[in-house]
Each structure stands twice: as C-alpha cells, then as structure tokens.
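Question: does this match?
>
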Amino acid sequence: MSIRSILAGVGITVALAACGSSTSTGGAAAGKTTGGHGTVTVLYAGSLENLMERELGPAFARADGYAFEGFGAGSTELVAQIKGGIRRGDVFISASPKANKGLEGPGNGNWSNWYITFARAPLVIGYNPQSRFASQFRSKPWYEVITQPGIRVGITDPKLDPKGKLTVAALTDAAAALRMPSLAHALSKFTVFPEETLVGRLEAGQLDAGFFYTVEAKDQHIPTVALTPIKQDATYTVTILKGAPDPRGARAFVSFLLGASGRALLKEHGLTVIAPTLTGSSAAVPANVRALIGG
C-alpha cells in the first residue's frame, strides 16, 4: 500500500496550529548591530529548537559577535513561508533534502541552488513515563502498544513536516514487513500537532506517545523505543537563502555550524554527525564554507 493511499484513506484530526519559536540571542534586536556585527536569522527544522535556541545559537553569538535570531517549524512549512514571502531569513536548516528542492529553480523563486548535508537523527517513538502505557512500551513491541485501544499518539502533519512523512512511511513499511494492516489503520487515530509543540503536548500528559527524532528526545529526556525492524532518519541540511539580509553573517553561521565547535554541539545533542556533503552548484557556495567541505 502506498503512502499516498494511506494518507487519502485516513482522517487525521488536526490540532490548532501554534507559532514557532522566535528569539534573539546576543543582546540585539533583528536588523540592529551588536559589537560591529548584525543579526543572523536562521529558519530551522522545529526538531532542533532546543539545540538552536539554548546551545548552538548562543555559542555562535559568543564566538562570532553576531546576534542570533531563530525560528523553528516544519521544514516543508518553512519552505512555503519563504516562497510566499511570509518569512525572511539568512539561513535555512531542513530535516529533509526533499524540502530543499522546493526552493530550487525559477518556478520556486530560485531561493537556493545548493545545500550541504551535515547530520542525521533516527525516527523513534517517545513516550510519557507517567502514561498508563509506559510499562507496555518497556516490555512489548512498539507496534503492539500503539494499536492498543485508548492510547493517545501524536504525529506531525505529513504535508508540512518531513517527520510526518517519515512516520507514515515507517508505519507503511512496518505494516507490510510485519503483515499488520492495523498499523496502517492506526494513523486514523493519531492526532496531528505542529512539530514545535509536539514535545510539550507529551510532557504535559496530553499524549501517551509520539513520533520524534532522537535529538528531540535526548534534549528533553524523553524515554524512547526504536522502530525495529524499520529504520527512518531525518537528514539535516543547511543553505544560505537568496537575498539574505546579512550574507556575511549567514556565511559566518554556516561556517560555525560545520566547524569543530558546531559539530561538537551536534554530537552532544544526539545527532549523528556525518562528513558534510554538497548537493548543487559548488560555485554558488561561499569560499569559506566550501573550504569546510573540501571544495
């Protein structure tokens, strides 16, 4: 059964959308300067919120003298906002290379013609340790627990967030591999939330479980179970957007992210750091960034 047919056949309840995070680090408001530098605005996949706002953003500001302003949401949603002129940024960090394709070419506004893949994070199920289903997650296969009557499971919208798409793919693959049609049908019972609010819903006890990346679960100390025998990963990419308000700051941020300090922080937060790989036009990549990927 295809992912498309599953999506067409299930009725997913969509929760009220919430705004993504938006903060400024370094003591300067957007558009103003601090210490001779400006503010770098980074639009990032919502799964990286804790990492960006509490660790990497402030570390970049201290190291390079720029102020950091971040906004997190579903990667596909951010692409739509960039193309629609709703949101403007210097740097875009996605959880899926497929989302980046939505920014490429004349039909998509030529917002970017390159991206660098730099990290991965497995998709897992995170559960509330106070849930009445917690002991089952520790003792039974995950696919048996999430099909239990009455369990409250949260996912992100497959139309707006790569994690939602990976969740559908994982359940589709598991249903086929395990010969459990009930896994595919379980989607109709799950509730959709914006990526940046799903962790909070789980911690507040509004959900028994949800689908997360390991980076989110590690940061929030959420117990998890692997989706054995299925494996789905987020693949994180970074690019500088066309017309970046602060191109110099954008170059500095990407260099910090891909440099030794940035990579160390990625590892600390549970990401699998990989050798940076360029997709697209090498000539369009700033020289200081290109040097970090051997170009």
Remarks:
- The chain has two domains: 3-16+121-233, 22-120+234-293.
- The domain at 3-16+121-233 is CATH 3.40.190.10 (D-Maltodextrin-Binding Protein; domain 2).
